[in-house]
Design brief:
The chain is α/β, with parallel strands linked by helices. It folds into two domains: 160 residues, Luciferase-like domain (TIM Barrel, Alpha-Beta Barrel); 115 residues, no CATH class. Helices cover 43% and strands 15% of the residues. It is built from eleven helices and nine strands. The chain has an eight-stranded parallel barrel, surrounded by eight helices. Helix 6 runs parallel beside helix 7 and helix 8 crosses helix 9. It starts with a strand and ends with a helix.
C-alpha cells in the first residue's frame, strides 16, 4: 500500500457549525487510522469563517485525544505569525500528552490577508526571519543544555519532528539545507511541484532528524462509487475556489449538478489551474491517478485533501481512497 495521509481543512459548512466541523475532523481521524492512513494534519488559517483550525495546536489536541495510533500534527503552523518559543511550548506539551504521535509542519506564508496579519501583531517582514526561526524552534525541542537561560517548558528533549512546507522552490531549498522532510502544496499550487522536488533531492544534506530526503506531495482526491458522482461531489471544492477569487470567504456549499452555471470563464480558468492535479472518480479512476502521480513525482507519501460537503460522503471518499491505495 502506498503511504497516504490526510490534510483536513476542518471545513465549516452550510450544514454544520464550528463545533460540528471540529468533531467531524476528530471522527474522520478515528476512521482514518483504521483505514491505514499514516498521519492527519490540520492547517493554520485566520479570518476564514469556513475553516475552524485557526487555533491549530488546540485542534491537534482535540483530534489526538480522539485517536490512538495515527500521527497528528500541523500542516502547518505559519511560523512568521508566532514567536518560536510559544510554538515550542504548545507542541512540546502535545508531545508530552501524545508521545511519538505529533508532527510539526512549518510554513512561511501568513495564512491570511494583510489586514489580519496586522491584527496578529506581526509584520510582513517577519517572514524574512523564517530560517532563523526554524533553527530556534528546533533548538527548543532538543535536550536542554547546562546553563541554558531560556527553555520551552515542557518541550526540551521531546525532539518533535519538523517539516518544511512549501509551494515554491524556496521551501525546497531550505528543507534540503536543514536536512528536514519536505511537503509540497500541489493541492492548490501545482506549478513548481516537479522543480521543487528535484531541487530538494539534489541539494539534501543529511541531518540528525533525517538521513535521506523524504517528500510528501499534497493532492486533492474525491472518490465515489462512480466517476459521475465523484465529479458532482467535487463541485463543493470548485465553488470554494471560485468564491475565493470573488473575495467571498463563506461556508462550504453542497454540491451542484452544473458547475458551469456557477462560475465565470475566468473563475473557471483560475480554479482549474490551481486544481490541475486533482484526482476525481471511482476507485479504479483514483487508483490510476494516484499511480500516475507517484510514478511522476516519486513521492514518499501522498497527503490528501478530500473536500466533500457531507460528512458521511467524505468518510466514504476517504475509505475508497484507502481502497485504491491498497491496490498500488
Amino acid at each position: 500500500m502506498a503511504d497516504i495521509s490526510i490534510l483536513d481543512l476542518v471545513r465549516v459548512t452550510q450544514a454544520t457549525d464550528a463545533r460540528g466541523a471540529l468533531d467531524n475532523a476528530r471522527d474522520l481521524a478515528r476512521h482514518a487510522e483504521g483505514w491505514g492512513f499514516r498521519r492527519f494534519w490540520v492547517a493554520e488559517h485566520h479570518n476564514m469563517p469556513g475553516i475552524a483550525s485557526a487555533a491549530t495546536a488546540l485542534v491537534v489536541q482535540h483530534v489526538a485525544a480522539g485517536t490512538e495510533r495515527i500521527r497528528v500534527g500541523a500542516g502547518g503552523i505559519m511560523l512568521p505569525n508566532h514567536a518560536p518559543l510559544v510554538i515550542a511550548e504548545q507542541f512540546g506539551t502535545l508531545a508530552r500528552l501524545f508521545p511519538g504521535r505529533i508532527d510539526l509542519g512549518l510554513g512561511r506564508a501568513p495564512g491570511t490577508d494583510q489586514l489580519t496579519l496586522r491584527a496578529l501583531r506581526r509584520t510582513p517582514q517577519a517572514a524574512d526571519q523564517f530560517p532563523q526561526d526554524v533553527l530556534e524552534l528546533q533548538a527548543y525541542f532538543a535536550p536542554a543544555e547546562p546553563g541554558q537561560r531560556i527553555q520551552a517548558v515542557p518541550a526540551a528533549g521531546t525532539e518533535v519532528p519538523l517539516w518544511i512546507l512549501g509551494s515554491s522552490t524556496y521551501g525546497a531549498m531550505l528543507a534540503a539545507e536543514l536536512g528536514l522532510p519536505y511537503a509540497f502544496a500541489s493541492h492548490f499550487a501545482p506549478d513548481q511541484l516537479l522543480n521543487a522536488l528535484d531541487i530538494y533531492r539534489a541539494r539534501f544534506k543529511p541531518s540528525e532528524q533525517l538521513a535521506k530526503s523524504y517528500a510528501i506531495v499534497g493532492v486533492n482526491i474525491v472518490a465515489a462509487e462512480n466517476d459521475a458522482e465523484a465529479r458532482r461531489l467535487h463541485t463543493t471544492q470548485q465553488m470554494s475556489f471560485a468564491d475565493l477569487f470573488r473575495g467571498a470567504r463563506g461556508l462550504a456549499k453542497p454540491p451542484i449538478d452544473d458547475i458551469e452555471a456557477y462560475w465565470s470563464p475566468e473563475e473557471k480558468r483560475q480554479a482549474m489551474h490551481m486544481l490541475a492535479r486533482s484526482i476525481v472518480g471511482s476507485v479504479a479512476t483514483v487508483r490510476k491517478g494516484m499511480r500516475a502521480l507517484l510514478d511522476e513525482t516519486h513521492a514518499d507519501e501522498l497527503i490528501i485533501v478530500s473536500d466533500v460537503f457531507d460528512h458521511g460522503a467524505r468518510l466514504r471518499s476517504y475509505a475508497l481512497i484507502a481502497e485504491a491505495a491498497a491496490g498500488l
